[in-house]
């Protein structure tokens, strides 16, 4: 019907770059092209094509790279099946299998000379319901007013702190009064620095933050030659940045438009956006593209956004809480609980399984008593019973997880990676892998960025507070404007620094004591706190020296022991009277309450203190009586306490001990 | 006693250091604009807005002159003069500190050098609506390109960088552009809260502020001397802060927090309760409470493009104000007619065009010509002289065959026979010698300028 609208006018053309060119979605995309990655059990490409066709596009060029043949077959099959989009839109497939980046695809397209006029540039992961004609018209107007205008980029305004905008990167946009982009930053930083010449060169500059890239760019035909002329343009960001930076040389300008409040648009670039978009689709933001509409009659839409296929077998006492899609021919056995997850077609789920915030692709078998949260299970995988798969674990295709495996934040594939890492093997058909993406560069915060970059949606509240008031404005004002940095905490870190340096360089403990004392005066810490923090520092230091992050109490003890031995003179210096012993015990308790490792070996730690005459029985017994009787720590300590009590009785009876 | 909602304060102790050529021997607030002294416009505006009383802060040594001048103008508003010593270099915030004991309610601070037709209602409404800490009014710059008397130096205005949240009118960023070298840093936290900030570079601060009383109290113990330069940016920055919430160590805090801004900036329980019960929220997106629980809130109002607003604190703006005053008079005074020619002026000249303002007590002899000019009181212009496009203040003597074009002539100047001036500024009590010719110059008695 859109064809009728455009009448004799030029056909509206669109270009889809059909690949993602990154390691982000591996190993799931190892043998499945990114464009066909299912989202709510429908391939991404289907959404994109439907979006373009509803948006009024007449002709679409689909550039295929990895797995081009599979995509081609898929498109042909869909055309044959009269997919809705195929009725109003022609799809032309361009095979560019040698292309390795977004920029390469556009250079390839340029060399073919297929696109003549304005066109709409999207990516395979772009989903939306946007009236593209409206923005095309705006783009044409921009070009009329500014001969140098080459592109209009669409963004969505998310309002303050909207979680779905929280991709790894945050966009800050500076635009002139006429919507010309002056400044573009796509990275998260606590200070955003806007060049002064931009500001002083314009009467007003609008600064937009909390905006979402819709991944739709409306281009004039000169965009393609610009890519060809600049071989360093690899991504769309490169293009925007390059044009802004060399504005004088290239003489091209970019404009921006914000989509209306009732329109929806998103580009899937990583698992987090995949997750957020899945929820959005289930919440029907992408209407008319909803699971029940896309494959007519296949799903039944019931309350709490549950999409249940007709031929799903559901056992007794299964609870589908909210936001769940279950594909056809799947089986869910009794006592299973599923929430905020997508279950593909032909999936078998055993009894008493817990699935939350996860994506299970087709033909997966999950046995009894498995727990899956914030994870993706690739197709044909089998998860054997009693496994726990959590924290952004991604299983590739055909992976078999052995019984009782616990996985956190891991990428798992079915075949052996070539590097021989003995830790990598989980089972005969399951190997941990790493992909060298840009994330490894910031290795310091790796665990954090991993945990937040995959499915583990991390809501902004906590980092807001951790960012704190102190950093923001301390530059110009005295102590008043920020809460005082906690001297005691600073003291603790100072002590830890001293100790770790001392341990590495094998410094004299006497010197370290001097150092600690001087820190003590610098931060004005009481003797009590000194004792507490010195012991704490030694215990914490062992964590820093641990070989790997996940460790048992035993490993911890083996690293702690040499440290204790080395720092014994220091301990002797500080832990010398009854009060100090109490402080030391308090330190043990504090550290144990926040770390399970030390809780496991707390007995050993206490024993060491006892054996080295740093703590006396009565201190420990007194401390024990003050412990929370229901706490974990209390239970752990009990064997030692009873041994102590026995020993006491012994010594009471035989005088010679 | 019944308290007014606002107390009005006019700051008139400025020395006019930005255009000392003409303010060296006359209080800035008494410079003539049209046929009124500059401060009259602020007073009239407040009177028009419904204020019954106003505190005018003046320099000690200028008080008598200002008071006696203003007594001639029959203003209905009660003026209470407060003096501050003239020998110290005191800023606008210092002025406020001096009158803190007189301040019982929120303040409506106006400078003496604003000429505007903007209805203050909008500003007051903004203040009331959000229970703001500070509300400011910004003006759009005047578009006119006039040839300003004096040397042809490129006039560089001081530019402010004003960041205003587009949705809420929150003033979130305020600094002078000259504070930055290459980059303007904006904190992420700020942008998170205010996703669409418009940075303005060409706005002019009107120096009309509504200020909560607590800020004056807070000012007492801060080392801040100016309102615009220091206090406002300070308060605007403080908006991002949250009160420290550590009740555990109450005794400790009392010592430190005596000086803390949140010790002063407290909202009443009732206000908080009302906001809690209300469905109003100033932002969309996250599910945080209204204003993100900010205690300090600054708002800014930008004047309509078509409205008149001139801040007379530089020579160009003074020149513009004088040139446009006949045009904008009715707008400012709400339809009053401007008496162009004082009834007691003695005019024998036949060539006075209808754009001239002639004050009482001036004496224009025969065969003189005047176009688009203002002639102050007790000024005498002898025959065969002409005054075009110029501003002549009081007690000036213009001898014969003098030609003045596009000039500002200050009080007590004598222009000897045959002198010709074009685009000049003549400072107070100067004498221009016979038959001299000057263009684009500032003529003053040098010693007077030395002071500045």
From TrEMBL, chain A:
GO annotation, cellular component aspect: cytosol; eukaryotic translation initiation factor 2B complex
GO molecular function: guanyl-nucleotide exchange factor activity; translation initiation factor activity; translation initiation factor binding
Primary site of residence: cytoplasm
Gene3D superfamilies noted in UniProt: 1.25.40.180, Hexapeptide repeat proteins (2.160.10.10), Spore Coat Polysaccharide Biosynthesis Protein SpsA, Chain A (3.90.550.10)
Subcellular location: Cytoplasm, Cytosol
InterPro entries: ARM-type_fold, eIF-2B_epsilon_N, eIF2B_epsilon, LbH_EIF2B3/5, Nucleotide-diphossugar_trans, W2_domain, W2_eIF2B_epsilon
Assigned protein family: Belongs to the eIF-2B gamma/epsilon subunits family.
Name of protein: Translation initiation factor eIF2B subunit epsilon
TrEMBL record, chain B:
Domain Nucleotidyl transferase: 8-142
One Pfam family of this chain: NTP_transferase
Domain Glucose-1-phosphate adenylyltransferase/Bifunctional protein GlmU-like C-terminal hexapeptide: 367-435
Gene Ontology annotations of biological process type: cytoplasmic translational initiation
Alphabetical keyword list: Cytoplasm, Initiation factor, Protein biosynthesis
Gene Ontology cellular-component annotations: cytosol; eukaryotic translation initiation factor 2B complex
Quaternary structure, from the entry: Component of the translation initiation factor 2B (eIF2B) complex which is a heterodecamer of two sets of five different subunits: alpha, beta, gamma, delta and epsilon. Subunits alpha, beta and delta comprise a regulatory subcomplex and subunits epsilon and gamma comprise a catalytic subcomplex. Within the complex, the hexameric regulatory complex resides at the center, with the two heterodimeric catalytic subcomplexes bound on opposite sides.
Protein task: Acts as a component of the translation initiation factor 2B (eIF2B) complex, which catalyzes the exchange of GDP for GTP on the eukaryotic initiation factor 2 (eIF2) complex gamma subunit. Its guanine nucleotide exchange factor activity is repressed when bound to eIF2 complex phosphorylated on the alpha subunit, thereby limiting the amount of methionyl-initiator methionine tRNA available to the ribosome and consequently global translation is repressed.
Family named by the database record: Belongs to the eIF-2B gamma/epsilon subunits family.
Protein name in the entry: Translation initiation factor eIF2B subunit gamma
Organism of this sequence: Agrilus planipennis
Taxon lineage: Eukaryota, Metazoa, Ecdysozoa, Arthropoda, Hexapoda
UniProt gene name: LOC108737665
